[in-house]
């Protein structure tokens, strides 16, 4: 099937290259002229675009694709018999597009993204404040707060040190939360950077290619585009 499609593309490009004989039909000439004109405008827009503009645009594309795929996954699960063959490809594409959207937001708009997580400061330092509150007003908030940690330690057969000072308990819990969010922050960078680099490559490559075509022949960018498509298809066919 793939060979047939690639061979058909070669035939169509070859017919386009015939030039004058192909364009003797007014309808075919008008059709090809429209394609050349639209591609020329697209090439001009790509040539003038910046990587940052491309990333902002790609982020929107990732977002809409993620929403569409999420709806598709929901529909498949609700209205058809679950099948890993159908769901897994959708899930992986959804995961990549969502991470693509998030990675661009995380990297290029990092300051604003971090500010959205500023409420986590209350979660991190809340136990410490409760410890101060217990110390002053003799309330049992930190004792209640530490109960889940004691239950987890018991389940894992791990002995927690006996601490009675509310300020020490609050400080210890705050330290645990701080370590957790620090690990989450570093893990987020480790996951988003590779996906972001793929997005940068996907944006920069078309821009540089458009500038390359314009440098060869600005008036005939579509023609030179077909030349490189023909080269790529020919190499691809040799590998099949």
Provide a concise account of the structure shown:
The protein has about 240 residues and is an all-alpha fold. The protein contains nine helices and no strands.
Structural commentary:
It is a single chain. With 240 residues, the chain is an all-alpha fold. It has helices spanning 2-18, 26-48, 51-79, 84-108, 110-116, 120-137, 141-155, 166-217, 221-239. Helix 3 (51-79) runs antiparallel to helix 4 (84-108), helix 3 (51-79) crosses helix 8 (166-217) and helix 4 packs across helix 8 (166-217).
Please specify the SSE layout and strand pairing.
Layout: H1 2-18, H2 26-48, H3 51-79, H4 84-108, H5 110-116, H6 120-137, H7 141-155, H8 166-217, H9 221-239
Order of helices and strands: HHHHHHHHH
Task: Give the low-confidence spans.
Answer: none
What would the principal axes of the Cα set say about the shape? elongated
The main pleated sheet reads as: none
Keywords:
240 residues
